[in-house]
Amino acid sequence: MEKSDYVEISLPIGAEHFDLAIGLLRQIGYESFWEDGDTLRAYLPCAAWSPDQEDATRAALAQILLTPPTLQVTLLPTRNWNAEWEATLRPIQVSPRIIIVPSRYKTWAHSHHQIAIEINPKMSFGTGYHETTRLMIRLLEQVLSPHDHVLDIGTGTGILAIVARKLGNLNPILALDNDTWSIENAKENIALNHCHDIEVKLLDAQRDLPAVLPMAPWSLILANLHRNLLEHILPLLRQHAPQAQILLSGILKYDESWLRNLTCQLQYRIDLLTKENEWLCAFIKPFGTLNYTMKTE
């Protein structure tokens, strides 16, 4: 199956601005990024590029740059970009126990005590090269129970669901994404890693979660998303899965106060909080009886 062409936006903003720019651009729909020297290259489907998207891009960059750069826009066929991007990936050790190995390095030697996760990333998020994926995996090692009922929202490559299974979780795992390409990629990676009882579904988190959450007694929900989406779905999780613990990331460290305020409103306690570069990851637990009023559109 071929995916539609992508647009590459070249942003000569300097490496010191990359983390903040990626966080802001991901919130307005950019899917992938390539840090090329002092130039950040951002990618999104051609169908998503429009004058409104260009304005939103400029507005996002204006939050961190005194003078936003000229946007250099290039039409890039998916096939060429995908091959070029995958060729740059190397095995990466996420923790002393877990190493992520791109498929082209499947014979990579690793210690007998390490868990090697084979990932064929294609265009999906979750290769281990982004801080949020690494942060999620490290905390998942700490908090996962063999008997947890795990729900992975925004599964991307399927890496977090795969890690949960490899770490010894015994129950069926449900992995969700709203992107057909990611669903296919996650299924492929689950098969590559010989993981069983991981169901992958194409669903929209904001629209479909109220129907999904009653399906099982979820005890651990994984949500490596962006701030805007977390702001919408955390109230849903608290309402429809009130006992579930949540491991979340996709938030810049500058948004920590926002996260603390939101979790306090929803009566979650931040049990663990870790950071890498500009990103943070939190493990939150519910407490008390929810008195939060859901907003309606």
Descriptive account of the structure:
It is a single chain. By secondary structure, the protein is of the alpha/beta class. The chain has 2 domains: 6-86, Alpha-Beta Plaits (2-Layer Sandwich), CATH 3.30.70.860; 126-286, Rossmann fold (3-Layer(aba) Sandwich), CATH 3.40.50. Helices cover 33% and strands 27% of the residues. It contains 9 helices and 14 strands. It has helices at residues 18-26, 51-62, 78-87, 131-143, 159-166, 180-192, 205-212, 227-240, 256-265; strands spanning 6-11, 32-36, 39-45, 72-76, 92-93, 98-102, 115-119, 150-153, 173-177, 198-202, 220-224, 245-252, 268-276, 279-286. The strands form 3 sheets. The protein has a 7-stranded mixed β-sheet, sandwiched between helices. Strands 2-3-1-4 form a 4-stranded antiparallel β-sheet. A 3-stranded mixed β-sheet has the order 5-6-7, with helices on one face. Strand 11 (220-224), helix 8 and strand 12 (245-252) form a beta-alpha-beta unit. Helix 4 runs parallel beside helix 5 and helix 7 packs parallel to helix 8 (227-240). The radius of gyration is 19 Å and the shape is globular. The two termini are 36 Å apart.
In short:
Helix content is 33%, strand content 27%. By secondary structure, it is of the alpha/beta class.
State the main characteristics.
Rossmann fold, single chain, 33% helix, ribosomal protein, 27% strand, seven-stranded mixed β-sheet, EC 2.1.1.-, 297 residues, four-stranded antiparallel β-sheet, Alpha-Beta Plaits, alpha/beta, 2 domains
Count of DSSP helices? Answer: 9
CATH architecture of the largest domain: 3-Layer(aba) Sandwich
Give average pLDDT, whole number.
86
In the predicted model, the low-confidence regions spanning at least 5 consecutive residues are: none
Assembly form of the protein: single chain
Kindly state the percentage of residues in helix: 25-40%
Strand content: 25-35%
CATH superfamily of the largest domain: Vaccinia Virus protein VP39
Tell me the number of structural domains: 2
- Spatial separation of the terminal alpha carbons: 36 Å
- Please give the CATH class of the largest domain: Alpha Beta
